[in-house]
Amino acid sequence: QVQLVESGGGLVQAGGSLRLSCAVSGRTFSSYAMGWFRQAPGKEREFVAAIRWSGGNTNYADSVKGRFTISRDNAKNTLFLQMNSLKPEDTAVYYCAADRSGSPYYTTAYDYDYWGQGTQVTVSS
Predict the structure, then answer these.
(1) Which of 43, 65, 84, 101 has its Cα between 20 and 30 A from that of 15?
(2) What's the pLDDT tens digit per position in 86-119?
């Protein structure tokens, strides 16, 4: 079992930045892939970014490439999502997730095995 707890969401103006964190605990997850997803009201949960915990291979949705950066701190067992140049359309609940397969290239929610509770990000225009 893996436990995931997100933090760092909030309200920011368009063009601003936020950094989300996800504290990871539980059984060994060094071989897992860790991802960020988001879900806006009335929309399906969509892939944002993913990283293989060991090795650091990353994958990004086209909509966030060049603006968002996913990273992890091995010593602190924490996953991050640095979000720059935020747009109103980035407004959503952001979820941290873990995939036992270890591949950062799976981009659908059902590929992931463990989920956090989510953190709200609101970008005002």
Answers:
(1) 43
(2) 999 999 999 999 999 999 999 999 999 999 999 9
Q: What is the pLDDT of residues 16-52, one digit of tens each?
A: 999 999 999 987 788 899 999 999 999 999 999 999 9
**In which residue are the tokens 């060049």 written?**
66
CA distance 25 to 42: 31
CA distance 112 to 37: 10
Tally Cβ neighbours within 10 Å of residue 116: 22
d(CA 93, CA 54): 26
The answer to whether 99 touches 43, Cβ cutoff 8 Å, is no
Residues 6+ apart with CB under 8 A from 82: 17, 19, 68, 69, 70, 71
State the CB neighbour count (10 A cutoff) for residue 30. Answer: 11
- Give the C-alpha distances (Å, rounded to integers) separating 18 from 9, 21, 101, 102: 7, 10, 29, 26
